[in-house]
Amino acid sequence: MAKEGADMTEETEFMIDKNVGKGLENVESSGNAKEMRAVILAGFGGLNKLKVTKKAMPEPQDGEVKIRVKACGLNFLDLMVRQGTVDNPPKPPLVPGFECSGIVESLGESTKGFEIGDRVMAFVNYNAWAEVVCTPVDFVYKMPDEMTFAEAAAFSLNFVAAYMMLFEVASLREGMSVLVHSAGGGVGQAVAQLCSTVPNVTVFGIASCFKHAAIRDSVTHLFDRNVDYIQEVKKICPEGVDVVLDCLCGENTGKGLSLLKPLGTYILYGASNMVTGETKSFFSFAKSWWQVEKVNPIKLYEENKVIAGFSLLNLLFKQGRCSLVKSVMDKLLCLYEQKKIKPVVDSLWALEEVKEAMQRIHDRGNIGKLILDVEKSPTPLMASDSTETSEAGEEEEEPEGDNDSKERMPFIH
Ligand SMILES: NC(=O)c1ccc[n+]([C@@H]2O[C@H](COP(=O)([O-])OP(=O)(O)OC[C@H]3O[C@@H](n4cnc5c(N)ncnc54)[C@H](OP(=O)(O)O)[C@@H]3O)[C@@H](O)[C@H]2O)c1
């Protein structure tokens, strides 16, 4: 499967190389277009709330960069946005997506540091899943020449989050040990790669069993997500571990804390356990909240333990730490150029295939990152399905859960 990911990256590279001329032509000729395609979330809920439609072309405001998007990152967080499980989302209809890569098409007044035609990757506070995006210059970074657009869309959120948790929050150093859940996912693989840049770091990864063959070499010890990982880790390290990275929440909070060595750090950075089906489950939400260990600081003092939380999007969009994130991005791009890290791309999907792409995450099928490739055409539908995902401009609603009966042909052969 990891091999499959690598092949797909090559395929993207090929697709993009083939289209270089076309891309630049677009940059010049698209200046007058009044509309663009975008994925719209019509309301919070299941996959049927997503559709591709036409939207007014955005124009860059003062200090913004207008990007002709080539690829967008699809994150677990986007499933939570769709379900309405995140804090204070904008009111739908909204365009989801927090990161993309592409080519600078124009600059707002007083925007400095970029030129038309630059290859860039960017964070966007929603609105990334579109053909064109405008975002403040502080959230835009130049791509290395050798990086593909798919890799760039898989890079920013996963690697910046992984780096900041390991090095800014947990001060990872030589000889330490790290436990990471969802080790085969986008963040999980970034964590594994970054740990390998520090000598003698032991990584305990937890992932669904079928991913083990593909990701075994990326971590030191790998456990099935269904086993009692506390017992397994303690058999190897009776003292526990230095860092626990918990993106699941619920009962894993208490388990993670119990695994910490003295002076160890537990970081909560997600709540994947709250997603148990296609739509928001109040039961899972309440269960996760209820199961979280209520921690007494006096106990932390006695046991010499550190608890932290980390949210990259809040750091960027609510807490104004974009210059810190920029400095982290510079370090990460050095590591990329030294070939010490490389985003793992699971698969590429057309905008019109966004439902199937999300379903793949719900099914726990991904190894690495899913990418929406804006220039990719949807793969032909199976004969059994003639009413799949809405094409641009279509507005019809599908009954919830209808998606189950529909399948696309494999997107890469
Ligand atoms: N705080 C931050 O700044 C930040 C930034 C990025 C991501 N995150 C969080 O980090 C986690 C990983 O994000 P990602 O985007 O890299 O996604 P990802 O790990 O690629 O997500 C998919 C994987 O998550 C695992 N998983 C765990 N619970 C699941 C559930 N209820 N439904 C489906 N899959 C589940 C599955 O792997 P296994 O079956 O192998 O476990 C699945 O393949 C998420 O919780 C996300 O919200 C936080």
From TrEMBL:
One of its GO terms (molecular function) is zinc ion binding. The gene is VAT1L. It comes from the Eukaryota. Residues 403-413 have a biased composition (Basic and acidic residues). Gene3D superfamilies: Medium-chain alcohol dehydrogenases, catalytic domain, NAD(P)-binding Rossmann-like Domain. Residues 45-372 form the Enoyl reductase (ER) domain. Belongs to the zinc-containing alcohol dehydrogenase family. Quinone oxidoreductase subfamily. It comes from Amphiprion ocellaris. Keywords: Oxidoreductase. Residues 377-413 are annotated as: Disordered. Residues 391-402 have a biased composition (Acidic residues). The lineage of its organism: Eukaryota, Metazoa, Chordata, Craniata, Vertebrata. Pfam families: ADH_N (PF08240), ADH_zinc_N_2 (PF13602). This is Enoyl reductase (ER) domain-containing protein. CDD domains: MDR3.
